[in-house]
Amino acid sequence: MSQVKLTGIVKDYGDHARIIHGIDLDIADGEFVVFVGPSGCGKSTLLRMIAGLEDITAGELHIGDTLANDIAPAKRGLAMVFQSYALYPHMSVYENMAFSLKLAGMKRQQVDDAVQQAAAILQISHLLQRKPKDLSGGQRQRVAIGRAIVRKPAVFLFDEPLSNLDASLRVQMRIELSRLHQELKTTMIYVTHDQVEAMTLGERIVVFNAGRIEQVGTPLDLYDNPGNQFVAGFLGAPKMNFLKAEAVAVADNEVSLRLADASIMTLAVSALGIKPGDGLTLGIRAEHMSISPLSEVDAAGIGMSGIVMCAELVEHLGDSVIVYAKLAGEPAMIAIKLSTDAPMLKAGDRFIARLQQQRCHLFDTSGKACKRIPVSSQTAPSQPFYSA
Question: What is the pTM of this model?
């Protein structure tokens, strides 16, 4: 069994520098889990603690049924792939992959079988006699992964292994890693600061911030139901829009908000702990907004339609268009992701923006997400949306 269990894991450097603050996490046998978060959040430090490259200050690490706190790194049954390939330049690909097995005293035929099998899995059999200098970045990373595979570890640890690759190779290697996991069915823990890698690779994502876990869940669950404003803003590209709002009326399952431009909107959310006058934050993703030219809506028709914005910048991405716009009284720029057949805008154009209210998020004064209430035609908010 290769499950990993972390209980109250703490890491201190000196008397006052606490980097990891009591991490509790269970990783199932055969699961692909991604640690994600900004630089300095502690995700790589925690991975190194699992690997045995950093001492554990407090708490317990179990690998399988074994308490691993004091077990030497080489005896934990783990294999780690680093950001740098760390290949021996004077050795061939075959020799790089076989090196650890030879040190372990394995017989020549066993070593050859293991290397050939790993090379076939990674589709690098034709490269076995080359030196690292003759390989592309993606091929070198495959060799580094192959060097880990031949050891047949209980758990694979990946520390930002794709950071040194260009964009197209990163996409290719993400596919390769997903295929590798499906084939080997081995527990994998993957560290990255790239939320795209996290969303595409992980069966579960662990979002870190300042040495603590903010939220754990499947990629779509974290994307659709972030537990707080940090998680909501970290996952997604463009990042979620956050608009200042004030609670003007509160009922059990709905809150009416006043936005910066004095527009009012009502959301079906749990209002527990919210009172009129509270400063809140409205969150809406760029793809959950649509637009109409201002010329198509007369002054009387704006009321139930949306809010007036002004385009500041328009990015044409080929398959989509990103409009960055300003809302009166709102300091932050608002991103709106549109299809290419949406009305064409240019900087300076004013337009009507419509928010999909069932996809809006509301965060309280502490940044915690308010639970959204499923909306049917019978339970729609009493006052959906109107402008001042």
Answer: 0.88
